[in-house]
Amino acid sequence: MNYGGKLMLNEIIKWNKEFVKKRKEKELDRPTNSHASKEALIFTCMDTRLIGLVEEAMGFKRGEVKVLKNAGNSIRNNCDDVIRSVSLGTIMMGIKEVFIVGHKDCGMAKQDLDDIKNKMIERGIPEEEINKIDLKEWTGIIDNESENVKEVVNKLKNSPYIPKDVKIHGLVIDPNSGELEVIVEDE
After folding, report:
1. pLDDT of 153
2. Residues 98, 176: one domain?
3. pLDDT at 171
4. Is residue 135 domain-shared with residue 179, that is, in the same domain?
5. Which residue positions form the known binding site for Zn(2+)?
6. pLDDT of amino acid 6
7. Is the domain of 93 the same as that of 161?
8. Least confident of 19-33, 93-107, 119-133, 167-181
9. Structural domain tally of the chain?
10. Residue 22 placed within a domain
């Protein structure tokens, strides 16, 4: 779908009307439990190549797992939102296993800080605001996909907000083939 710079909202709403109609005709519009039936959560990257791929490659279907995403599937210092979400999933929704899924060829391992800063300025972000932060930490740039997965597993395992009986595994997925590599297996 290329909209030539036009806002996509009108096309999305048009598409959605047909989508909903077809779901209703197939009786696929029945309520689904909001809790993960497999008691699992996936934390992965927001890379577009992973949409649907990660769950399918792991054998999960809609409604079976919680999925949490951010740029680079990283947990930055002093940014507790990922830990908060995983914690609430484990405490309030019965999540028993967490899968950290990084991926090969991650864009967050290829970013240049000067380029990011310049693009921020071009888009109207005041340079004085950018200079107030540690840009590498703020962006979540990673050096290595596998090392990032290990670091995220460790941060979750060492968080006082994650129950100690929760299993936390680390994997890396190939964004083309879907092949998984186990980096950390929690026993």
Report:
1. 97
2. yes
3. 98
4. no
5. 45, 47, 103, 106
6. 67
7. yes
8. 19-33
9. 2
10. no
Please check the confidence at residue 116 and state whether its pLDDT lies above 60: yes
Instruction: Supply the pLDDT for residue 5.
Output: 58
pLDDT tens digits for range 11-68: 999 999 999 999 999 998 888 878 888 999 999 999 999 999 999 999 999 889 999 9
88 shares its domain with 127: no
- Binding site, annotated residues: 45, 47, 103, 106
Q: Would 124 be classed as within a structural domain? A: yes
154 contacts: CB under 8 Å, gap ≥ 6: none
User: Are residues 38 and 126 both part of a single domain?
Assistant: no
Whether residue 74 sits in one domain with residue 154: yes
Q: What DSSP line would sit under the chain, residue for residue?
A: ---TTS-SHHHHHHHHHHHHHHHHHTT--S---SS-TT-EEEEEE--GGGTTHHHHHTT--TTSEEEEEEGGG---TT--HHHHHHHHHHHHS---EEEEEEETT-GGGS--HHHHHHHHHHTT--HHHHTTS-HHHHHT--S-HHHHHHHHHHHHHT-TTS-TTSEEEEEEE-TTT--EEEEE---
